Amino acid sequence: MEYVIMLALCTVLTLAFIALFRGASKNGRRLIDLVSFDLP
């Protein structure tokens, strides 16, 4: 039963990462600006 919950969580996390990467590809320059701003 527990492995089913873990599998569901992994699936949700995977979908979330895919959504983030798609957003990064669209707003890649904006993301780079934010990262470069955070880095010293």
How many domains, as an integer?
1
Write down the secondary-structure element order.
HH
**Euclidean distance between termini CA atoms:** 46 Å
What amount of the residues lies in strands? under 5%
| Number of helices, where a helix is a run of at least 4 consecutive DSSP H or I residues | 2
Number of strands: 0
Largest sheet: none
* Derived structural class: mainly alpha
> Helix fraction?
over 70%
Radius of gyration: 15 Å
Mean pLDDT: 78
Shape: elongated
* Unreliable stretches covering 5 or more consecutive residues: none
How would you describe the overall organization of this protein?
The protein has 40 residues and is mainly α. It has one domain (2-38). It has two helices and no strands. The protein has helices at residues 2-26, 28-38. Helix 1 (2-26) crosses helix 2. The chain is elongated and about 45 Å long. The protein starts with a helix and ends with a helix. The mean pLDDT is 78.
Structure summary:
This protein is mainly alpha-helical. The protein has helices at 2-26, 28-38.
Which labels suit this protein?
single chain; 40 residues; mainly alpha; elongated
What's the topology here?
Layout: H1 2-26, H2 28-38
